[in-house]
Every structure is written in structure tokens, then in C-alpha cells.
Design a protein that fits this description.
The complex is a heterodimer of chains A (129) and B (361). Chain A is α+β, with helices and mostly antiparallel strands. Chain A is built from four helices and nine strands, in the order βββαβββββααβα. A six-stranded antiparallel sheet of chain A has the order 1-2-3-9-8-5. In chain A, strands 4-6-7 form a three-stranded antiparallel sheet. Chain A is globular and about 35 Å long. In chain B, the strands form five sheets. Chain B has a six-stranded mixed sheet with strand order 10-11-12-9-3-13. A six-stranded antiparallel beta barrel of chain B has the order 14-17-16-15-18-19. Chain B starts with 7 loop residues before the first helix and ends with a strand. The mean pLDDT of chain B is 97. Classes of the chains: A alpha+beta (129), B alpha+beta (361).
Amino acid sequence: MNIPNDLKYTLSHEWARLEADGSVTVGITDHAQELLGDMVFVENPVLGRQLKASEECAVVESVKAASDVYAPIAGEVIAANGDLEANPDLLNKDPYGAWLFKVKPADASDLNGLLDAAAYQSHVDSEAH
Amino acid sequence: MLKQTPLNAKHREANAKLVDFSGWEMPIHYGSQIEEHHAVRRDAGMFDVSHMLPVDIKGEGVRAFLRQLLANNVDKLQTTGKALYSCMLHEGGGVVDDLIVYFMSETWFRLVVNAGCADKDIAWMAAQRDRYAPGLEIIPCRDLAMIAVQGPNAAAKFWQALPGSEGPTRSMRPFTAVVIGSMFVARTGYTGEDGFEIMLPAKAAPYLWQALLEAGVKPCGLGARDTLRLEAGMNLFGQDMDEKVTPLESGLAWTVDLASERDFIGKAALLERPIEKQLVGLVLKDRGVLRGHQRVFMAQGAGEVTSGTFSPTLNGAIALARVPAGVKVGDTVEVAIRDKQLQARVVKYPFVRNGKALIDL
């Protein structure tokens, strides 16, 4: 399983990356896409929506099931990945390249409250037992 | 402790994702459910369906007993090996299980029932036997494995995998079976494609599986089996019908013989109960995925999706739904998906047969 060191993670299997421009990009982890299987539908939050941390804000659906995506941190939605509309399978092929949406964080230091790669790895391991 | 089929080791070798299905440890997929689905529509795939149970009923007067037991009419079975799909009803007209019955001789019929219903079915059949035909033997064949080989190239690859099998099976028509040595080979399936379902001794099953693998047949999990059967418009017990609904409200009127004089268990109730609901096909006009238990709304009232999925062949969302009797093909209905009401079109199903889309999205 691929868990890049330069990303932050949530207990609900989202990843977050702080960009140079101060925005935060959000996606779902390799582990999440593997659990869900072949992706067939993505519903992203509308632009301008103010997200609270841990709020349900997007849905990814595989052939098997629908799964909620939770906001890793609070902030305003400033971009959504339109490529996923026609090609939701990008989430399977490249989970860390196929981002879902970007937020302008209310407070960038909120990222410090998320899991680092090692902590996320142990979380995944503990869920497997 | 989950029950395992004789093919469990083969699934693990193939890196299957194994899940609990009705108390059995079964492969849901081997990597990609969608690729497995396409393999069956375009080439050939195989499923371990050993969790399903063949039940032999033997003795003098099996046919008369099955006339009572089954809603479809076994008198449609007049040539050796002929098969029939039927529901088995309780007195109230609800569905105990759906099954395929094979006529092998006047003293031997074979029924194949759902895994999740097997114990209940055996008890039900035994109780009816005691009442109507105490001399008959009901024999659960738990020592048999079952492999379904399905797809446009399934027959050719089966013949390649099993030298000598082509002669006795080449001219088999759909819904027939032949016995070849210790194998029971039926030209049936649950995908809407050509193919065989092969019942054979448990210890032989891994060898046939391996031979099919070497002939280029792709292992497919229960995930693909579900999307294939739904595209093919085939009911799933426990979702599209169960003990609470009749076959007449489950799109299965074609399998119920009410025309003949014959009495059968549940017939009186079917004739008495008003038909208020029907099973229809839905295709979603908006983006999204239809799923079981979503509520459906229309002028005539409300209904519910019984089975819904993303159709890999049609590249869109399809479903079976139980709706009020007045709803017609071509109507637009609304489906509640999370916090939205999305539009769906009522269509005649099946959605796909023999690799071809029958519905435009």
C-alpha cells in the first residue's frame, strides 16, 4: 500500500496536501480506493462552500457502494477536479494524483492536527485487525 | 467460522478479495469487478457458485410432488435434461426461494437453490414431502462443487479445457442438462450470456478450475455476478423478492402457472391477493448511482429500488424497482439519492442480453 510521506491523512482515509499557494488539496488514499473497488461516480462540493472540519462534503461511489468523503480541515472550496466526472476510475489508477477538491484553509495550522504517514499506516494496520 | 468451497485455495492463489456471503467465504472480485464483468460480456469468465445447493428428489412420483411444491408447472419438462426456473411459495403466496429444476427421469429431479436459503428450503421441502409424498427422498448434494462458465466464448473454452466434453454438449439447447460421468453439465447461467453451469465432485473442482484458467477463462467474483445478472434483468432472492411478496409483484408472473387446473402451494393466495405493485426497470437520467432501498416517487405514489447498480455495459445507473401497478414504461419518476431527487426513466428490462445493450441511456 502506498502512503506518501509528504501528505497528511485522516482517520476516515482522506489525504491532504498543503500547496505553495497556501491552498490545501484533498483526495482519498490508496487504501480507501482499494477497499471501495472500481470507482464509477464522484460528487464534489460546490465552489464557494464553507466546509467545517470532519463535515461530509463529497461522495465517491464504486460499483460496490457509496462512501462519504469528509473535510480534513475547515475552509472554502476553491476548486473541484472535473476530470473525475468522466473518469472516476482515475481514483483507482492514481489516488494521489486524482485529487477531489481544493480548499482555502480557515487556518493552515489545522493541518498539524492530521495524521502523518507513519500514524496513518498504524491506523490502517489497526483497522485490519 | 465461514464455510469454504472446494475452490477456496484457487481463489487465494488468484489474489481474490474474499467476503462473507451467506456464511460462505466467497470471492467478491480478483482485482477489478468491472474488468471481470466485461470479460463475461465479451469473452469468457467463470464463477465459483459451489455455495449454491443442488438438491435431488428421488423416488416414485417426484413429478406429482413438484406439481404441488412449485409455482411453475413441471409438466413443461417432458424431455430428459430439460430445466425450468420456478419460485417455491408458502401458503400465503410469498416466495420461499427461487430455483432451477432439472428433469432427469420420472424418479429423479434435481433442484438448485440459493445458498442463503438452503437450510430453510430443505426443511420446507421435507415438511411438504411428509404431507404430500412421504415415500420420496430429498437429498442435499453438499459434496458437489459448481462452476459457472459464462460468455460468448465460454463454450469453446470449456471444450478446450475439458477434452471430450464437446461431443455430448455441443448441441445442447439453453435450459438443458446432460450427465457426463460424474459431471452434471447444464446450459444455464445468471449473466444473460451463453455458457454452462457444471456440477462435479468437490475434489475434481480445482482441476477443472485450473484447466479453465489455462484455456483463458477469467475468474470472476460475486460482484461481477451481481452486475451481470442485474443487466440481464434477473431477480435476486432477498432483494427483488422474498417471503413477504408474491412473484406476481416481483416481475415473475411469467414463471407462475395459473392457467392450468393444477393446484400448488400458494396458488389460492395468489388468486386472492390484489396485485398492487409491479417490478420495473429504471435508468437514471441524471448523474449518480441507483442502489437498493432508495425511495422512488411518482404520481401514483411511492416505491422502492430493490436492486440498483452502475451498469458497466451501459455506462450508467440501472435498477429494478417495486412501484405501484399503474406506472408505465416511458414514465419519468424521481429517486431520492441522499439529499437529492434525481430523475429516472421507467424501462422494460432486461437491459443487456448476449453482449448487446437493449436500452439507450
